[in-house]
Amino acid sequence: MKKSIVTGGIALIPVLLLSGFALAQSANVETLRGADVDELIPLDQIHKNVEGRMQRNYRQQPPLVPHSIEQYQIDVRTNQCLSCHDWTKAGERNAPTLSMTHYLDREGRELDHIAGTRYFCNQCHVPQADAPALVDNVFEPSSGN
Ligand code: HEC
Ligand code: HEC
């Protein structure tokens, strides 16, 4: 008696497995992004980098970055922006040299290397993008008055 219950139970296993499989097949799973995993969805053109150098809106504005920055690592050990923009490299890389203000420490002393206060470039410099303003802005440069 006991044996037949056990074998009966074992015989049920494939049936249960198969029905579970059938259920999973029929469930209609929708992706959050509304496309298949391997399908590329192009980014909104509006957030693409704008070609050419944009005019500064006021004299002291950190210039916007006229190229993509995604691939340039900045962390405690490395700063790839410096591999083109530091004064030691800018000539050969044909890139604008860092502003001389970036080589002054807090006391105004001239340094030969970038000041710690200017190390994390993207604190101040952001890539150019033709994006709608997130908040209303009525800023006008003083010379505009
Ligand atoms: C492969 C070299 C290279 C690297 C790396 C690089 N840049 Fe540049 N960058 C350039 C060149 C060349 C220009 C000038 C482009 C032009 O005139 O259109 C430029 C222009 C700029 C400007 C505009 C300067 C101005 O006076 O208008 C800023 C700001 C800037 N880069 C910031 C950065 C930052 C921040 C990083 C790192 C995230 C970075 N760059 C990494 C080559 C580089
Ligand atoms: C604390 C803000 C700040 C940080 C951090 C900073 N910058 Fe700037 N940067 C500015 C400002 C403001 C200007 C324009 C005024 C000036 O020349 O100081 C400028 C100017 C520049 C220019 C234009 C120079 C010229 O003569 O036209 C370049 C290139 C530049 N920065 C690159 C960088 C790079 C690369 C880094 C990171 C290694 C960096 N900056 C970090 C604020 C910053």
Automatic annotation (TrEMBL):
<feature type="binding site" description="covalent">
    <location>
        <position position="81"/>
    </location>
    <ligand>
        <name>heme c 1</name>
    </ligand>
</feature>
<protein>
    <recommendedName>
        <fullName>Periplasmic nitrate reductase, electron transfer subunit</fullName>
    </recommendedName>
</protein>
<feature type="signal peptide">
    <location>
        <begin position="1"/>
        <end position="24"/>
    </location>
</feature>
<keyword id="KW-0479">Metal-binding</keyword>
<dbReference type="Pfam" id="PF03892">
    <property type="entry name" value="NapB"/>
</dbReference>
<feature type="binding site" description="axial binding residue">
    <location>
        <position position="85"/>
    </location>
    <ligand>
        <name>heme c 1</name>
    </ligand>
</feature>
<comment type="similarity">
    <text>Belongs to the NapB family.</text>
</comment>
<dbReference type="InterPro" id="IPR036280">
    <property type="entry name" value="Multihaem_cyt_sf"/>
</dbReference>
<keyword id="KW-0813">Transport</keyword>
<feature type="binding site" description="covalent">
    <location>
        <position position="84"/>
    </location>
    <ligand>
        <name>heme c 1</name>
    </ligand>
</feature>
<feature type="binding site" description="axial binding residue">
    <location>
        <position position="102"/>
    </location>
    <ligand>
        <name>heme c 2</name>
    </ligand>
</feature>
<keyword id="KW-0732">Signal</keyword>
<keyword id="KW-0249">Electron transport</keyword>
<feature type="binding site" description="covalent">
    <location>
        <position position="121"/>
    </location>
    <ligand>
        <name>heme c 2</name>
    </ligand>
</feature>
<dbReference type="InterPro" id="IPR005591">
    <property type="entry name" value="NapB"/>
</dbReference>
<comment type="subunit">
    <text>Component of the periplasmic nitrate reductase NapAB complex composed of NapA and NapB.</text>
</comment>
<keyword id="KW-0408">Iron</keyword>
<keyword id="KW-0574">Periplasm</keyword>
<dbReference type="GO" id="GO:0046872">
    <property type="term" value="F:metal ion binding"/>
</dbReference>
<dbReference type="GO" id="GO:0042597">
    <property type="term" value="C:periplasmic space"/>
</dbReference>
<feature type="binding site" description="axial binding residue">
    <location>
        <position position="125"/>
    </location>
    <ligand>
        <name>heme c 2</name>
    </ligand>
</feature>
<feature type="binding site" description="covalent">
    <location>
        <position position="124"/>
    </location>
    <ligand>
        <name>heme c 2</name>
    </ligand>
</feature>
<dbReference type="GO" id="GO:0009061">
    <property type="term" value="P:anaerobic respiration"/>
</dbReference>
<feature type="binding site" description="axial binding residue">
    <location>
        <position position="67"/>
    </location>
    <ligand>
        <name>heme c 1</name>
    </ligand>
</feature>
<keyword id="KW-0349">Heme</keyword>
<comment type="function">
    <text>Electron transfer subunit of the periplasmic nitrate reductase complex NapAB. Receives electrons from the membrane-anchored tetraheme c-type NapC protein and transfers these to NapA subunit, thus allowing electron flow between membrane and periplasm. Essential for periplasmic nitrate reduction with nitrate as the terminal electron acceptor.</text>
</comment>
